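for ur thesis appendix - MurR/RpiR family transcriptional regulator. copy paste whatever u need, i formatted it the way the template wanted (i think)
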Amino acid sequence: MSGEFVTRAQAALPRLGATDKRFIELVLSDPEAVVRGSVTELAQKAGVAQSSAVRACQRIGYRGYQDVKLAITRDLAQRGEQEQELAHEEGIDSRTSAGEILDRILRRSGRALVDAARTVDPELLSLAIDRMAVAGRVLVVGNGTSAAPAHDAAYRLSALGLVTTYPTDVMAQHLAARHLDDSCVCLVISHTGASRESLLAAEAARAAGAFTVAITSFTNSPLTRVADAALIAGGPEYGFRLEAMASRLAHLGIVDALFVGIAVRRPKASTKALDVMADITIEHSL
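the 3d part is after this line
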């Protein structure tokens, strides 16, 4: 099953305590039991107290067990369509044509993007847009598999006229973060939220007074604990596809949302900057 609950649970699971994890893993293994049963029954089955079961639901972003039940009910209602997609995607091997591989991978990529919309907090996204739209300077940080979406983010923010820097050297990132102040924003993109180099830059930016935005895949990581606005969009592992590859699509989707949000917050400045970008594009076209 895919959907809201599974996406939120998978994003939170790696950092949950043993008791919370035991209850959430039970729910993931048999989501229909949640619809049929009570929190008392499921807590007993998981071997945890009822209060612990409720807290586990709260720690993955719900107000309580009843909210989890409603989310799973919605997800199960869509399961027929999901099962058809999964059946269509299974069985890729050396005999599968390139066209079929493309079709199946893009279907899963599309679902990863839909699921991401359920984990990003819209209030935090709005706050990040507001702060970035008026920032004196934006520092963008991303390493490893997150370097590509970070580079794209820096390029697009620059296209809107924002003063944006994107150092590729980790020491240069750390140094640039130290030079920020409370008028600045540091945008850090990290799949795991535990990359030492990216975390050092985020901590330095926060200490310097900058507003720190994180785009990451897990709800409780060293990076989310540092960030003022943590935008969570993860992706499950898909066979030959690396988990970070699936999540990268979702992270690029968040970058798109930031770009559009900033553009509409400052329409005159954005239009002027994008006109300049259009002129430059023409100059570089044959």
